[in-house]
Amino acid sequence: MKIAADEKKKVFLLHTKNTTYGIAIIDDRYVGHLYYGRYLEDADIRYLLREDEGPRTPSVNLREKGAFLDCAPMEYPETGMGDYRESALCIRDARGFRASELFYEGYEILNGKPGLEGLPASWGSREDCMTLKIFCRDEVLGMKVTLLYSVFEESDVITRSVLVENQGKEPFYIEKVLSACLDMDDRDFQVLGLFGSWARERHIQRMDLGYGRQNLASFKGESSHQEHPFLALVTPETTQDTGEVYAMNFVYSGNFLAQAEKSQFDSVRMLMGIHPEGFTWKLEPGACFTAPETVLVYSDQGLGHMTRTFHDFYRNHLIRSPYLHKKRPILINNWEATYFDFDEKKLLEIAKDASELGIEMLVMDDGWFGKRNLDDSSLGDWYVNEEKIKGGLNALVENVKKLGMKFGIWIEPEMISPDSELYRQHPDWAIQIPGRSITQSRAQYVLDLSRDEVVDGVYEKIAAVIRSADISYVKWDMNRQLTTMGSCCLPGDRQGELYHRYMLGVYKMQERLLADFPDLLLENCSGGGARFDAGMLYYSPQIWCSDDTDAIERLAIQEGTALLYPVSAMGAHVSVCPNHSVGRVTPFETRGDVALLGTFGYELDITKLSPEEKALVKEQVKKYHQYNDLIREGDYYRLASYRENGYYDSWMIVEKDKSRALLFYVQVRARANAKSRMLRLKGLDPQRRYLAEEKEYQGNTLLQAGIRIPAEMGDFRSRLVEIREIP
Question: Which terminus of the chain has fewer CB atoms gathered within 10 Å of its CB, N or C?
Answer without folding.
Answer: C
